[in-house]
Records
---
Amino acid sequence: MNRVQLVVAMAVAAAVRSPGQALADLRVLTTESRQYERVELGWRPERAPANPFDPNVAALDAWVEYPPGRKAAVPGFWFQGYERSLKDAKAVGKERVEVLRGTGAPEWRVRFSSGETGVHRVTLVLREAGAERRSEAAEVRIRPGKSGGFVRVSRRNPQFMEDDSGKSFFPIGENLCMYEKREGTYYFDRLLAKLAAAGGNYVRLWQEYYVPKELGTVAGPGDGSFAGFPLETQVTGLGRYDLESAWRLDYVAGLAEKLGVRWQLCFEMVVWWQQRQEHRWSRNPYNAANGGPVVKPADYLTDERARELVKRRLRYSVARWGWSTHLAAWELWNEVDNLEGFTSQANVAWHREMAQYLKQADPFGHLVTTSWRDPGMFALPEIDIVQGHSYFGSEIDAAEYTMEDSDHLMRRFGKPFFFGEQGIDGDWAADPEGKHFHDCLWASAVSGAAGSGLYWWWHNYVETNGLYRHYKALAKFVEGVDWPGRDWRAVRLSRPNLPVSLKAYGVTGRDRALVWLHDPLAFRIVEGKGVRGPAQAKASVNVVGLEDGEYAIEWRDTTTGAVVRVDLGKVDHMRHFGYGLEMRAPEFWGDVAARVLRRGAGWGLGLARGLKQADTGEEQPMGLRAEPSR
């Protein structure tokens, strides 16, 4: 138990022993649950606290006794229920306008989840106006479930992630940082469903500080109405939270859980801390002009009151959403290096303080990440995931740029790394089929990173052009890969028979490999127009670094994920002079990928059920009816 949890636990334990006035009418909203599912309790006070968002004014905590005898303090939060509806039930797509209607009175809530089965005893403790009150212990029965639990840094290989059960987790997804404010949660009904149906399993969300340009007006098209899930705004004032926005994130969190999509929540967006961003800095609640403590943006990292307010917001976020196993990580900053007046010294100190606080306040132990490039913050032991952002011009080879941009961040810190944002700058109209988008996904996935890059232009490119299909082929390709189970190294070649333009990328792990052949000249944008190149018919490579033995080479169509051919090959260092495994690619345009496995290697790449022969579609055990390489 860490220091902050210990202090809270001692206070809760003292209150449990005290004879003060009891908290009556505790409601157990989830009387029975399964492992890692949400358990929720509610208590409605006689009157609302002066400020229920300030723990110094009023704080509710739960003392949870788990079946093995372990005890933990879980923070509570102030809650208002809502129901959603459409202003016009006949409206479709972006024309829809969400309307929220409050339900019931505001009250305290506690949420938690547990990997244990059996009866859990929960006692609520309220500290307010110098007094402490407690509830009678409530019992919640938790039955066995199928969830693997929370996402962690792998114990087997710290450059990858896995869940509590030890199952590998490899993010494939996009940014959904903001949504059409007028469409509200209905926006996520559309986009999250499309991503999940295509095999995507990860999104990045923002909290931020959005309010309309004219305070109090309804957000509409053309007024910068794309919003995240703000708690503090110029409307609420510092230290008070937007409960409608919080409810919307509740809804999205529940939807993500149903669809099997994990998410990370980013607290700070740098554009709100740039004075040139007139429509944001002028509406930032921390701006001294709006009654906040910060005169200039850089002061935010060092001002004592600002840091205290941030911790309150972190505590509230932990209390409200920390229960979710689908919340993969807390992200402290988006592109903090672009903060006006940025210094690494102040940045590292701020990140150390806030990451330590999060880890102490979060009883569920979520991962902590941040972005963009400052090596000092990534070196902190409290930062679990290294996250870069990568953008490039449309004339640049997306695959090569991705590899070069990731290499210096991936190995340096010995932590999981992936791109939290990725994409091309402009010229989308010249690439309606998403070839650059496709190349970003595949290059990042086979680079040795802990996940594929999260594409940025979700709202005006991926959805608009119907490009979610590109996720499906990649998801099929990496299905079943036990990423933490191998010490993956970049693919090394000998005697390649490749056209000058063709390049080979991928990773090897002693007895297996993932190989991606990419032709950057297959599609280029030249002077704003797309130019297609020819198909490739005679490409071959020899992959070195694999153990001796017989191998299956399963070639995949990277646009559909289908198996197009299965070859057999052999590695024998005594006979082949160290030339490695010969791989002859089928004819392809743009790119083609292969999954390589040694016979008897325990598979782990999802091929344990056998290899599908492209011409028959029948299940073929390893080594049967496959075309041998000569």
---
Amino acid sequence: MSAIYVAKRSVVIAGHRTSISLEAPFWDALREIAGARGLSVQALIGEIDAARDGQNLSSAIRVFVLAAMRGAASAQP
């Protein structure tokens, strides 16, 4: 397996700029999921942020991506 690096990106959520650190594959998956839903990555992160229950945002994003990928995998014949 090749090295996986953490990338830090800034996004605006509810009018506030925040930085999020995620491994590159999670950023890639977020782009795919957002595109499939017709959203920007920032808008999707805003939805994840609004739904989280006190959980760290980076962790909430990882759990969201995992759940989305599991759902997509189980929907395939």
